[in-house]
Amino acid sequence: MAGRARQADADVTLNLAEAMAAFGLGDRAGAVALGRRSWRVRDGAEDWVLKLSELAQIAGLRNEARCLDALADVECRFTETDRWAALLRPYIEGEALAAQLNAMESLSARLARLHSQGFAFCDLTPANVVCSGGICHLIDWEFCTLIGTKVEDMPLRPYSSGFTHPDLIWGRGLIRPEFDLFSLERIVETGLTA
């Protein structure tokens, strides 16, 4: 399985230059890796995050683009081919959740707004939160799902050890805000915020 994951990452990386060209970003020489499938890239004077996905993961990236546009009010661009998909969104200069004092109020407010719009984030972990100017921003929206959806109907389910609600892991029940609140409690319990 690890060999397959490394191969998938290699396949995605091979498409980086093609994806950058699709967005008019020039060549990949200026791209700075942020993760296995995401890069910080520059377009004029602005920094962006470019995320790539291979065929098996395109639905998640497509969902992330839809959620960013509709729920997070974040400008993003999405393109896909028969081999890969790419998402371009603004880069947020900030600190990790663990480095931000008193971030819980902002994070709780962000989740409450999302829940009032009828969605659950479903993959709340410290790695998926960036704090900037006292405001918490959620990143990696591919698992964001309409509240009331059957968990077993999700095309992909998150698994972040210690943070993911057991019903998400095991594919039980319906999507509900409690999944995010469970993760929020785990973040507080681990002491990752002040």
Q: What would you note in describing this structure?
A:
- InterPro entries: Kinase-like_dom_sf.
- This is Protein kinase domain-containing protein.
- It comes from Donghicola mangrovi.
- A hairpin with a 2-residue loop joins strand 8 (129-132) and strand 9 (135-138).
- This protein has 6 helices and 10 strands.
- With 194 residues, the protein is of the alpha+beta class.
- Strands 1-2-3-5-4 form a 5-stranded antiparallel beta sheet, sandwiched between helices. It has a 3-stranded antiparallel beta sheet with strand order 6-8-9.
- It has 2 domains: 2-90, 2-Layer Sandwich (Phosphorylase Kinase, domain 1); 95-189, Orthogonal Bundle (Transferase(Phosphotransferase), domain 1), CATH 1.10.510.
- The protein is globular, with a radius of gyration of 17 Å.
As a percent range, the share of helical residues equals 25-40%
Continuous helix count:
6
- Described by the principal axes of the CA atoms, the overall outline is globular
Whole-number total of structural domains: 2
Compute the average pLDDT.
Answer: 86
Major sheet description:
5 strands, antiparallel
What is the correct CATH architecture of the largest domain?
Orthogonal Bundle
Count all strands and give the number. 10
Name the beta content range.
15-25%
Order of helices and strands: HHEEEHEEEHEEEEHH
Task: Please state how the strands of the largest beta sheet are arranged side by side.
Answer: 1-2-3-5-4
Look at the structure and give the CATH class of the largest domain.
Mainly Alpha
Kindly, what is the distance between the CA atoms of the first and last residues, rounded to a whole number of angstroms?
Answer: 38 Å
**Low-confidence parts, pLDDT < 50 over ≥5 residues?**
1-10
Structural class: alpha+beta
Q: Rg from C-alpha positions? A: 17 Å
CATH superfamily of the largest domain: Transferase(Phosphotransferase) domain 1
What is the oligomer described by this structure?
single chain
Q: What is the CATH topology assignment of the largest domain?
A: Transferase(Phosphotransferase), domain 1
